[in-house]
Amino acid sequence: MKPLTKNLWRNIRDSLGRFIAIVIIIMLGVLLFVGVKATGPALKDSLNTTVKADHLADSQLLATTGVSKAQVKAAESVSGVQAEAVKFKYVIGGRASDVVALYGYQKGTTINRLHLTSGQLPTQANQIVLDTAAKKSGYKLGQTYTFTSGSKLARRTFKISGFADSPAYIEDTSRGSANIGDGTVRYFAYIPASQMKMPVASQLNIRFPALQTRDTFSNRYKDAVATKMKLVKQRVKAQGEKDLRAAVYANIVKTATAKAQAQLAASGMPAAAVAAAADQAIKPQLSTFQQQATVTARKQLSTSLTWQTREDLPGFGDYGGSADRIAAIANVFPVFFFLVAALITFTTVSRMVEEARAQIGTFKALGYGKWAIARNYLAYAALAGLLGGIIGVFAGNLSIPRIVLSLYKNYIPLQQVVSLQWPLIALSLLLALIATLGAAAIVVRNELTEKPAALMRPRAPKSAKRILLERITPLWSRLSFNQKVSYRNLFRYKSRLVMTILGIAGGTALILTGFGIKDSITATGVQQYGDVIHYQAIVRLADGKKPAAARDILAKSKAYRSAGTVSGAVAKLSAKGHSLSDVNLFAPANGNDLEPYVSLRSTASNRKLTLPRHGIVITSKLAKALNVTTGDTLKVATTNGQSKRFTIKGIAKNYVGHFGYLSNTAYHQLAGNSAKPNTLLVRLQPQSSKQNDRLAKQLLNHHAIVGISFTTTAKKTLSNMSGMLDPIVLIFILLSAVLSFVVLYNLNNINVSERIRELSTIKVLGFFDREVTMYISRESIVLTVIGIVFGYLLGNLLTAYILYQAETEAVVFPLTISIVGYLTATLLMLAFTGVVTWLTHRRLQRVDMVEALKSNE
Hints:
- This protein is an alpha+beta fold.
- Among the domains are: 54-242, no CATH class; 248-309, no CATH class; 493-531 and 713-856, no CATH class; 537-685, no CATH class.
- It contains 24 helices and 20 strands.
- Strands 3, 4, 5, 6, 7, 8 and 9 form a 7-stranded mixed sheet that branches. Strands 13-14-18-15-17-16 form a 6-stranded mixed β-barrel. Strands 2-10-1-11 form a 4-stranded antiparallel sheet.
- Strand 16 (633-638) and strand 17 (643-652) form a beta hairpin.
- The longest helix is centred in the N-terminal third of the chain and has 48 residues, at 219-266.
- Residues 498-689 form the MacB-like periplasmic core domain.
């Protein structure tokens, strides 16, 4: 083995602690960088693979007028379309009178395939397959399941033959809503299609086999589906109108013929001639009947067809949003984490090369070339960088995504797909080498420019200078000798001061950011349903119905506090070339104040906003989406066809959803003076989910009420959103804590190594071990405190930026970091400093003073 090669391995052996520290720091940086960046794609790839295997529909049609076989053929006439009609309706069933999404099972169905988790599919007339989520309600194989008489089935009782998952319901906590029972769908079920008393199917599933290789959450996929669905919708609607027109026309003719026959029979015409005379009598009206049939068919069809995409399926959008938020966080947090790791690594490697000055000078004096000498230290740095990088790459890419996927317990079992992100791997290894090899190259190059004699002599220590604190005589004179020395040393080694503060501030900021992400997402629901919205339920009234009937039912509930009558509508808002649909409009039935149900506060001044007589108040996220501000004009168009332009009079704080608020006068300018209040905002005392369900059933059983929704549902969605990020946040906090400890330990080691002669000197002069430790640790404690304070500021800035990146179209995350986050970050950093101080004390006790003080001449 060549002398320089031996020297390389000897250097690694003699500085094994530092070598391992470099490897660990690089490993942690790469692990988090690659691992979190790979998690978003892994989540999407896993769901894509799962729904592809189960042939999830790309789009589906819900038709209250039914789906004919001709409409199925019309859909399939579009190139690349696979279509299947399914019998489907909402019914009441089970021990707790649950709302059930009931489907007719047909053997050979290829779209939305069921994935059995136990038992078998319903092959006999009395068998039923339940949603796996129904197991939570205590249902088991072999039990009897009963539907209510109003379900209109061929039979009411069935035997549970199996449990299954469906790609149309990927999340266990949400199954959608219905206008029967308590309004909340609890689970789905499949019975033989022959047992459903439905003359035609009510759902049309559409699938595009050629698009299944695309990411279902990508714009490329969505645009391709939208393009194909445009033609599918046209043909299905046209065929539906044709079918419905024929049925309506036949009914009109039948009715008119019966009426004519009755009149002719009453006139005394012979029975044998009545039929022919009636047919002759209505012939002049056939053209009119045709026109009537066309108008009626179009009107019925326009209100009976509801198209949905995958984004509209329960839980699907939330899953994609969660993956996008993780991807957004991965663009910031791991990058910052890696920068901290790289910065400390750069310092460590630089210090390693500087310590080898005498060795470099010796090799140079012995005649070795610059490249041969440099290669020794470059290999050391490259080896540490590559080793840490490779371990981090595979540990991060293969572990973190799998951990997160396994913790997504609210979703159906996904086929875990974790691909190696080769571009990301190459980038991370390149950055790791820049941090290690780059540092070594810069320092070695500088060292090799000096002559051997200069290199073999130690660098002259930096001369002490007066510091600002010394000029404050009353304070300086009260400090002890040791304290004065410590403060002078702090500013004597400015590079070490900056690196230590940056290292501690970075660690504190990372830990604080982990808590901040969790706290801020949680705070979204707290602030939305505490500071902005004060009602607990929204009750929708049937057309033309007065709110008195609903109030009577509500008054019977012990939880009822009050109900405010408002006019509600869904509208599309447009301004400056931007538009946004599904905006909720609310206007009080009287006056211009929504208190105590909604608090409107200005985003600029936090002052209370009063609804203007002739303008509109919109929420902050809506203003941002439309790129408007106070004083701008926007167009409001309701789903009923009314539209009007309003001036924006205020922008209100809001965290979830898009809202526009009008005074009673302004609303009537939009909807007309005949518009009546159609909604109740209801304030309730806190009550359980079962009590909410019971109240919902009572309300929906009344003809005056068509719907009710509770804010607890939205709160639960936000809670799930927060819960889905818990694994990532926990990983952030744990790895940040480990990095912080390694950084502190490494920086402290560098500090001791740089000043070993100085420490040995004061030890020779009679300082006790504890005094020697405090001589250097006092500086670490001061820098730790300063670093923690800077870490608070940096943590807030980093959290704010991540939350900005993670915002969705309709959700704002307010910057919130709880006292627990601050305490945890602070206590961890102080604890790490304490441990490092203890380790330093043990090390200084073993210092060979004579060896350390030997001259290098």
